[in-house]
């Protein structure tokens, strides 16, 4: 599951996201980010996928994780 705003990701994180999307991991950070964002724009339902939704709605992802932690204590 990926969390945190996608635009602030480090290149290593973008490589992981690209690999999960079965995309090329090559190029500069800006190029890779653009390709990933275009991929999500081409398939907007991916933004709702629990694996990726934290990249586009970080507050939801934190709330989800906080709720999960509350259940474990």
Write the layout of secondary structure elements.
Layout (H helix, E strand, L loop, with lengths): L10 H10 L8 H14 L10 H4 L1 H15 L1
Give a short account of the largest sheet.
none
Tell me the span between the first and last alpha carbons. Answer: 22 Å
Sheet/helix structural class: mainly alpha
- Low-pLDDT residue intervals, each spanning 5 or more residues: 61-73
| Content of β-strand | under 5%
Q: How many individual helices?
A: 4
Tell me the number of strands: 0
- Residue-averaged pLDDT: 84
| Helix-strand sequence | HHHH
Instruction: Tell me, briefly, the overall form.
Output: globular
Radius of gyration: 13 Å
User: Helical residue percent?
Assistant: 55-70%
What does this structure look like?
With 73 residues, the protein is mostly helical. The protein is 59% helix and 0% strand. It is built from four helices and no strands. It has helices at 11-20, 29-42, 53-56, 58-72. Helix 1 runs parallel beside helix 2 (29-42). The longest helix is centred in the last third of the chain and has 15 residues, at 58-72. The relative contact order is 0.18. Mean pLDDT is 84; it is low at 61-73.
Short account of what is shown:
With 73 residues, this protein is mainly α. It has 4 helices and no strands. Mean pLDDT is 84; it is low at 61-73.
Key traits:
4 helices, mainly alpha, 73 residues
């Amino acid at each position: 599951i990926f969390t945190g705003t996608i635009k602030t990701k480090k290149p290593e994180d973008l490589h992981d996201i690209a690999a999960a999307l079965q995309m090329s991991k090559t190029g500069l950070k800006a190029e890779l980010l653009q390709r990933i964002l275009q991929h999500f724009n081409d398939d907007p339902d991916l933004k709702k996928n629990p694996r990726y939704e934290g990249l586009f709605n970080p507050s939801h992802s934190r709330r989800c994780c906080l709720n999960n932690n509350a259940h474990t204590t």
